[in-house]
Amino acid sequence: MEYYDQHLHTHFSYDSNADFEDYLTNYEGFVVTTEHFDLANPVTKTDDIPDYKAYSQTIDTLNRKYGNRVLKGIEIGYIASEKERILEYLTDKDYDLKLLSVHHNGSFDYLDDEVKEMDPAIVIPQYFAQLSEALDVVKADVFAHFDYGFRVFGLSVAEFQAYEALFLPILDKVIDKKLAFELNAKSAYLYNNLALYDYVIDLYQSRGGTLFSIGSDGHYLEHFRFHFDDLFALLRQKGVTELALYQNGQQIMVPLPNETRD
Ligand SMILES: [Zn+2]
Ligand SMILES: [Zn+2]
Residue 33 pLDDT more than 50? Predict the structure, then answer.
């Protein structure tokens, strides 16, 4: 099986207008979308919940048309105040792939402009505390964009190292709970955090981590499989030979592509 994009959105996410067919008509392999589930979202001032019934029906229809290559996914945005409702929503639903994220803290989304004016020394430890709790509470397959909470600060590796002691227990938890570590192409290449990813991959490996997932976090076709060849090459340099895929919540290890497409 060829490695496919494991972080992708359609109009079932509040912040995307993309259609499944945008991706399906431009790619021959599996397509999984990971739709936003963000309760008490300060961005929209509402609960952003993908319509599971409509989502499942759409996927069933597309699977008949496109030869069963559409998979179900969700990006679970953890927020402590909504813990019970998050767990309740997830109980009776089936997903091939579950991503775990923290996007907001109830008052602001970590990408909001106001965060740029805040003190990283206050924001980052709070974000890490949320990640730590999210990992304890929610069972998921992939630990998404470790850097979301501090993207707006544009940290250098040296600046990140000031928080490393706080971050290592989170990485250890990711490893202990057997989640795959996501390389988020949008973070790395659109938000210029490639150096941080490069550094943290080494940290993850040094703690014993071996499970990698690559996702574009695309909200439209132009970002689908964004910079995948570059991320494959980066992992190859680090001695990685396999990537983790998830279908029906089961992990499937597939070879890291070793040829760069022309
Ligand atoms: Zn996200
Ligand atoms: Zn996303």
Answer: yes
Q: Is residue 242 part of a domain?
A: yes
Closest CA to 80 of 120, 28, 132: 132
CATH of the domain at 189: 3.20.20.140
Number of domains in the chain: 1
Residue 224 in any domain: the answer is yes
Containing 24, the helix (H) or strand (E) segment is: helix 20-24
Parent domain of 33: 20-255
What spacing in Å lies between the alpha carbon of 136 and ligand 1's midpoint?
A: 18
Query: Position of tokens 């989170």?
Result: 170
User: Does residue 9 lie within any of the structural domains?
Assistant: no
pLDDT in tens, 162-199: 999 999 999 999 999 999 999 999 999 999 999 999 99
Cα of 204 to ligand 2 centre, how many Å? 21
CA distances from 157 to 41, 161, 197, 209 (A): 30, 6, 9, 20
**Within 13 Å of residue 176, how many CA atoms lie on the same side as its CB?**
9
